[in-house]
Task: structure prediction
Amino acid sequence: MSVKPLRSVLYVPGDKPRAIDKSRTLGADAVVLDLEDAVAPEHKDAARENVRGALANRWPCPVFVRVNGLGTPWEHADREMALLTGVDGLVLPKVEDARTVGALHLRVPLWPMIETPLGALHAAEIAGVPGVAGLIVGANDLARALRTRPHPERLPLLHALSAVVLAARAYGKVPLDAVYNDVRDPEGFDRECRQGRTLGFAGKTVIHPSQVEAANRAFGVTAAEVETARALLQAWNQARAEGKSVATHGGALVEQMHADEAAEVLALWTQGTAG
Result:
């Protein structure tokens, strides 16, 4: 899988060939070709063949496939198709326990979706399964299962959102925030991106081309942040060269963890602007 950041991860319905073709050009850090919720039952087989054809060609970014869940009539055909075409990852819907993921024994990165109360409660065990690359929040199904009401700050979901971030970060995996449904509300989308970044998510799943650039911006770094990081690292490296274990920058104490954080900022900038 690519080392580039996953600031924006775009869902594209598998039964929409034109949308699949367009998604190659939108600048998303990854694309999820969706065979599950976005595709009606009568279109599942055709969508799988569309995705098979799309995966036969090179992509400018990692491509995942969201397969249909365990126990559905399409699960085995979906996974077989994705594995044989060399997909970069499998998105697994409505995962609720670690045993389900571990029993698959698939040699591709796995992205379990946390979208039920049981999934949220077991997020840590799921994140710890070998082969899991990250966790993705499915807030629509989660909110429905919890019987919550809409809230502009997602207050009813904050515990579950933080649980997913905590679980993913504890095991060195990537936490991806849920989609924002109203594509006509860019201000609301920006607000939710800022909240997701504050909570610790690495990026956001998106459902419309207009959301890609905004997500890349919200989960990326600015030129000012890069300059600050470079100056801090310069002060840190100078202090280390002088045999000191701490440094000062802008009047603040700098320790190893601050230097590590600055290095991460520079890495995100480099990876996010490369290629």
